[in-house]
Amino acid sequence: MADRYLHFTGTTPGRFLTRRLGLPQPAPLRRWTLETPTLDGPLLHLTAGHSAAPDLGPVLAATGLKVTGQAERPAAVVLDATGVTTAAGLADVHAALHPVVRSLAGGGRVVVIGTAPSADDHHQAAAQQALEGFVRSLGKEVGRGATAQLLRLAPGASAASAESTLRFLLSPRSAYVSGQVVELTADAPGEVADWAAPLSGRTALVTGAARGIGASIASVLARDGAQVICLDVPQAQEELVRTADRLGATALPLDITAPDAADLIAAAAPGGLDVLVHNAGITRDRRLANMPADRWASVVDVNLDSVLRTTDALLGAGTVNRGGRIVATASIAGIAGNDGQTNYAASKAGIIGLVRSLAPRAAAEHGVTVNAVAPGFIETRMTAAVPLFIREAGRRMNSLSQGGLPVDVAETTAWFAQPASGAVNGQVVRVCGQSLLGA
What is the Cα–Cα distance from 355 to 416, expressed in whole angstroms? Predict the structure, then answer.
């Protein structure tokens, strides 16, 4: 459903009226297209105090933006704050960004680069943790469709380990991601022969792929060069086949909760899977006092238990190849909770627990990363059916004052799926326009 308020605020009367009434004024977001693959303008590279990071210059240049130390209207600002180790050192963060933040272009990006808070040096830990509060607040301030993120580099991490993440955060692909903290490991990234098709030669399976977010994920993975297997329930076979045919993909009608689901998936991918996306999910909303057991059980079975069972089976059988990527779809409901969704929120919080526990073991034992996207209000058929006032609240209660699109979730999933994202592991990234709900 079209966001009429967003359209109205882009008109002259709309701008005048909303300004007078103090109402939100969302800026249309610029997303990736073939015609607009990069941000429009230079990248301002700054340092707060002494840098402890590897040389990021070549990686920043690879984003396609002109890197400079001075710009009147930058499209992006990258601040290296890895050397900030004391409370007094935070003054350097203020000194670096205070003069330039007002000149940031509409739809611009701010990325602050820090390190993990130390377990041994509480002064360093305090200063680096302070960057998180700073960035989350800055994301709420910058306005005009701009975003802010914190990227933490692990000790010993190379510049190459950050390349896929910086390419994503400093591009139109991350339009609806803001106020996030991404922590990178020191693991070496995989090779990417062609950044225009980083998934070339890789096989990806997407569950819940017949329509909505799942279909968009399948489309973006195919765009990036993957051979995609689209999985959905047999009841959605007609729509599933249409989606698969449009993408040159394979349709796999299958109930992911079936006892033999993992075996059938393995049979459909004889060469193994390089990308496994757990996107299938259902809602059966009702307050707990009015929720029968079958509504609880069906949501937990589809959204969580089937993910656990199939992931364990596919990893155990070696169906997920070394260097593979597992991406699950959580939800902001699993972080902040939601009235009438105790079952759904429990299942999505469970996904977060799965990611945090499995990620280090899957990397060590199988060479596979495990991450999750946590969507907020995304414009889908499901949210179009939400009552008007609740729908409008969902759209406006974030720093970008609008709902996201399925492609926003898909682009984040595709970043996780890249072979070059080997240092991105155990992360839960909200795709919610920096929702005012949750952390």
Answer: 13
Q: Are 436 and 397 in contact (CB under 8 A)?
A: yes
Q: Do 319 and 273 form a contact (C-beta atoms < 8 A)?
A: yes
404: Cβ–Cβ under 8 A, 6 or more apart, which residues?
A: 176, 375, 376, 377, 378, 379, 431, 432, 433
From the candidates 344, 377, 415, 416, which is the catalytic residue? Answer: 344
What is the token pair recorded at 222?
Answer: 């195919």
Q: Which helix (H) or strand (E) element contains residue 229? A: strand 227-232
> Does 5 participate in catalysis according to the annotation?
no
Q: Of the candidates 403, 366, 400, 411, which has an alpha carbon nearest to the alpha carbon of residue 386?
A: 403
Q: How many CB atoms lie within 10 A of CB 124?
A: 18
C-alpha neighbours within 13 Å on the C-beta side of residue 229: 24
Measured N-to-C along each axis, helices 122-141 and 90-97 cross at an angle, to the nearest 10 degrees, of 30
Contact 424, 369 (CB under 8 A): yes
Show pLDDT as tens, one digit a residue, over the chain (439 residues): 678 888 888 899 888 888 888 888 899 999 999 999 999 999 999 999 899 889 999 999 999 999 999 989 999 999 999 999 999 999 999 999 999 999 999 999 999 999 999 999 999 999 999 999 999 999 999 999 999 999 999 998 999 999 999 999 999 999 999 999 999 999 989 999 999 999 999 999 999 999 999 999 999 999 999 999 999 999 999 999 999 999 999 999 999 999 999 999 999 999 999 999 999 999 999 999 999 999 999 999 999 999 999 999 999 999 999 999 999 999 999 999 999 999 999 999 999 999 999 999 999 999 999 999 999 999 988 777 777 778 888 899 999 999 999 999 999 999 999 999 999 999 999 999 999 876 5
